Amino acid sequence: MRFARFFCSRFSPFKMAKYNLVFVLGPPGSGKGTQCSKIVENFGYVHLSAGDLLRAERNNPGSQYGEMIEDYIKNGLIVPVEITCKLLERAMKDSGKMSFLIDGFPRNEDNLQGWNKQCGEKVNLHFVLFFDCSLETCTERILARGAAGSGRVDDNKESLKKRFDTYMNSTMPIISHYESLGLVRKLDASRSPDEIFKDVKELFSKIN
Ligand code: UDP
Ligand code: MG
């Protein structure tokens, strides 16, 4: 029985199909969500924002993690991977689809290790889309978004500073890791959404 399972997982022609995946990373305010919406419209991917999934879980009155998530988000800290991974996996399964943009994840070493362990075997990672943007430009965008009523508890100067610190210290090393694997596609995200999308489109047209 054990042999049969081993044999099937390694050699069976009926092996489970893998999910197609693109990770989308970049500093807060670099336009990850904006570009993901455009990719969904044009290429039929399902957009999963780790941040949005965590906010939904926080708002779910039945969740045992609500308060904890609120605390992490306000302080720009990264929620333990077991929670985020579970939410992502559930969302992928529930969608019934096979191609996903995972936006804002993996953000630190804990995320990377947890993801590889829990989901690495089930996915085919095409590349990591990296929106490169100065923190000054990102700050302007986020404070404008906050002032316009984004309703996010972390779109304020104090939380933003913490989010940037986390980005520089914890997320940049993850981008470097994928860079060393030749998987990063870096775009200048200080431009207008339409200009950026021209480059994005080219990258996605090349995926078979
Ligand atoms: N977050 C997290 N793990 C993730 C993604 C998000 O803990 O995988 C938390 C983290 O506190 C982050 C916040 O959710 O600062 C908002 O993330 P989101 O991607 O929505 O916003 P961004 O900072 O990229 O604009
Ligand atoms: Mg976002």
TrEMBL record:
Localization annotation: Cytoplasm; Nucleus
Gene3D superfamilies: P-loop containing nucleotide triphosphate hydrolases
Residues at which a ribonucleoside 5'-phosphate binds: 55, 77-79, 104-107, 152, 163
EC number: 2.7.4.14
Required cofactor names: Mg(2+)
CDD domains xref list: ADK
GO cellular component terms given for this protein: cytoplasm; nucleus
Database matches in SUPFAM superfamilies: P-loop containing nucleoside triphosphate hydrolases
Keyword Transcription regulation: no
Domain remarks in the Swiss-Prot or TrEMBL record: Consists of three domains, a large central CORE domain and two small peripheral domains, NMPbind and LID, which undergo movements during catalysis. The LID domain closes over the site of phosphoryl transfer upon ATP binding. Assembling and dissambling the active center during each catalytic cycle provides an effective means to prevent ATP hydrolysis.
The protein's name in its UniProt record: UMP-CMP kinase
Organism: Armadillidium nasatum
